[in-house]
Amino acid sequence: MHPLAEPAMSAPWTVPAPWRVTAARRESADTVTLELEPPAEEDFAFRPGQFNMLGAFGVGEVPISISGDPAAGGQVLHTIRDVGMATRALCALEPGDPVGVRGPYGTSWPLEAAEGADVVIIAGGIGLPPVRPAVYHLLAHRDRYQRVVLLYGARTPSDLLFTDELAGWRSRFDVDVQVTVDAAAGGWQGDVGVVPDLIATTRFDPATATAFMVGPEIMMRFTVRALLSAGVPEDRIFLSMERNMQCAAAMCGHCQLGPFLVCRDGPVFCHRSLAPWLRLREV
Amino acid sequence: MTLEPLLRDHPFLKDLEPEHQALLAGCAMNVRFGAGSFLFREGDAAGQCFLIREGKISLEIAAPGRGSIIVQTLGAGDVTGFSWLLEPHQWQFDGRAIEPVRAIALDGTCLRGKCADDPRLGFELTQLFARLAIRRLQATRLRLLDVYGNVHASAG
Amino acid sequence: MTQAPADGEGQLVMARGHLDRMLEAITRRGFRLIGPTVRDGAIVYDEISSSADLPAGWTDEQDGGTYRLRSRDDDALFGYNVGPQSWKRHLFPPSSLLSRARSDDGLSFAAAGGQQAAPMAFIGVRSCELHAIAIQDRVFLGGRHVDPVYADRREGAFIVAVNCGQAGGTCFCVSMQTGPRAQSGFDLALTELLDDGRHDFLVEIGTARGAEVMSEVACRAAPTADVAAADQIIQRTAASMGRQMDTGGIKDLLYENFEHPRWEEVAGRCLACGNCTMACPTCFCFSVENVSDLTGTQAELHRSWDSCFTMDHSYLHGGAVRVTNRSRYRQWMTHKLATWIDQFGTSGCVGCGRCITWCPVGIDITEEVAAIRAEPPDQAEGGQPGDA
What torsion, rounded to 10 degrees, do the Cα atoms A185, B70, B32, B16 define? Predict the structure, then answer.
């Protein structure tokens, strides 16, 4: 089995649990973070990189990465982008509304294996939420890692997520945060350029660093190339992948990516195993 | 006092042979721009390329109704200005210092003259600029793909 | 389940006339009989009440895109091969209710209740089908998550296997090492012994409860001659397979040929109709749907068979990942023969030939593999995924 896999679950995959929305925060024009509370009897825990299936009543379920702090109990954060009927319904939920939840599912960022060296986190667009739990972990255990770098790209400044938190992280001396956008109106004081180009000018030790990456597939392919050119070994680059997901229980067949079931063998993958399949079209 | 040491230290030229660096020093000038000031404006005669040593510049263009749009920012170690290589030697974008900028300006006419006199220098320099141009092209193409784009807009 | 004795010891002979006693003994134990029966010009698996419902005297003629029933000149009860359906129809129904949700008094969810009226007894399961059931067991029961609908139907299902007396025109179980002899996974296994003057069944006991059923049926210990006769029948079947497939290194072969020109060629013939996925006994893709009633306070989670040939199957971010016919045929075939091995530890194919028979244009999976093997692609075309 895949080395990043998680232990068995006991609840039948067909029966969600009723959670409750405790807060809803708009992050950008099309993105909302929902704070959800599990039922009292459920002892929910997750690892950074995992996701839940969230159900919009009568509409459908979608896989949403958990975007909060794994060490904080209580509310569980999910950042959702409105891209279809189910996500639109979820983005419209208000505090007090119930929501069906199944999870957590999937593999997680190998944070323990990355200890003792640099960690480079690369996020594009809606890719920042799935990797934010890893950032929280790194900061909570800062002394276990060498340089911690966060490279984040989005379309325009108004599409940047978690800007207050980014500013907070940037003000720390022990984290290197670089943000870039594809285009900006005059007056923007930050960078305009693509995420892969940040790799060449970032200080870190490629030979020993681990990279965690989430973003649009094209952006990830370009950024992987930049990391490999810089000398990061293929087996220390991890990507979070996406495919159509319906059961999340490794039996509906939709999330296949070649030999992998993204809900079971992913979403976090080591680039070495994934590389041959990323090269192919329509797989 | 020559600017050779500054040229040697700049990432763009550091791998050139020392004799070529010395030749280029003859075309170099140390320049400085305050935050907010323009290094060059669209339409101006493009006589120079700039090797940025410190600070950040933005490449911008303005359109009626859209204000000014930043298409690229460049920082320490970067280079801006290809137009000295190509006719009609005219800047295509505005270049503005976002933060105070220190740079080395290389005069275009001088560069073209030295390359004509020393074809090997010409080849090395053209290679450096070609590589830079390709990197910029790939980055521009990546932006053209609008990878973060709005899903609803692209659904078809 | 215990392995049947290998040397013929413990095997029984039962006269054809007593077959109904066996079926009654099974029914008495609370099982609902599901077996082959003729309907609409094909042999399908449905509820039966006695041996009278079995396709006595029928055989099938199968080839690429061809299926015909023909009368035999004897009364064999199992003288045919496999029809358009498989047992998956009963273990993994085309449409099922999974759970219910209510939102009128807080939000609550409940698993759908009992899935079936009574446990099922499958009568006449071929060796390839036993393997297909085992393959689906791995998908639905063998992972971290268990499918409750499949589990409910599978648990306790009584299985009477049948060793094939003839090979079909599209059969290749020998190539896939899934037959024709039923080796395990059954309560009872029958071999039909029919020639001048006799119509009997050699019965192999597979489990204690199988033995218990046979204890209520008149039968005797099988003489060596009968065991030998059954062996011969099975060997003759094995020697007359309609198709064959070289499976040596097949996973690597397909992994190394994802850009082979053959995919384009077969895509020109494939209609993406999905017949193969419906007929196939191992295909398991399903779609999950959420349906609410008019009041909006009750919702149901349903699942129904899906196919990787549909445009929506790989929908992501406003479009499908697999858009072209070529990519979808390639997905189906490489999943069945190669990526299935990495996903679930075995091949997904049991060599039953249904995909060949029921393809409207007669695409033959064995021929496609042979074509890729025979024609190494141009260097320029090489797609090399390598091992997962």
Answer: 160
